[in-house]
Amino acid sequence: MLSKAQIKARPTVLWCYKKELDFSTHRKKRMKQMRKRQQATGSTGTGGGDEDNPFEVFLSSTQIHYTFYSDTPKILGRTF
């Protein structure tokens, strides 16, 4: 929903997780992992692989701050 909104100033997102994420929080590393997955599945990448997966579009187009649940007391009250 946020990725389809035509808003000039996109809202930032605070992503809290318990132990580990299934993906990398580093943008360049995540793009490299996406390319490897595309090559493994046999797609050429010319068809716009990320547009097919809305979650990947959301991750690449939104500014996200990642933090552990245990660090939430430090984060509460802050604005991003």
Structure write-up:
- The protein contains four helices and two strands.
- With about 80 residues, the chain is α+β, with helices and mostly antiparallel strands.
- It has one domain.
- Strands 1-2 form a two-stranded parallel sheet.
- The longest helix has 15 residues, at about 25-40.
- It is flat, with a radius of gyration of 15 Å.
- It starts with 12 loop residues before the first strand and ends in a 5-residue tail after the last helix.
User: How many β-strand runs?
Assistant: 2
- Main sheet characteristics: 2 strands, parallel
- Measure the end-to-end span: 20 Å
Strand order of the largest sheet: 1-2
Please tell me how large the radius of gyration is: 15 Å
Oligomeric state of the chains in view: single chain
* Uncertain stretches of 5 or more adjacent residues: none
- Provide the succession of SSEs: EHHHEH
Helix percentage range: 25-40%
Q: Mean pLDDT, rounded to whole units?
A: 74
* Overall morphology: flat
Tally of individual helices: 4
Beta-strand content bin: 5-15%
